[in-house]
Design a protein that fits this description.
Blueprint: H1 6-17, H2 21-33, E1 37-38, E2 49-50, H3 52-62
Antiparallel strand pairs: 1-2
Length: 73
């Protein structure tokens, strides 16, 4: 995600888009709970990164119109 802590990324994104920082933090937490991204905590500093499942979803979103997702039971 840019090789820096999540807070810095979210602050810049908030400035660029006008989306409140609190909204971005909430959505980042949801993405982490879904194992789509990972990042550290106040005590455990780590760079933010996209997890493999998150990368797959990004590729599917960016795929040409013919991309399909099939879900099986």
């Amino acid at each position: 995600m840019n090789n820096r802590p999540l807070t810095g990324i979210l602050i810049n994104l908030s400035r660029e888009t006008g989306i409140p920082l609190s909204t971005l933090k909430l959505n980042a937490r949801i993405l982490r709970e879904l194992n789509l991204i990972s990042y550290g905590t106040v005590c455990e500093k780590r760079e933010a990164e996209v997890e493999p499942v998150g990368s797959l979803i990004l590729r599917l979103i960016d795929a040409p119109g013919s991309a399909k997702i099939r879900l099986y039971d």
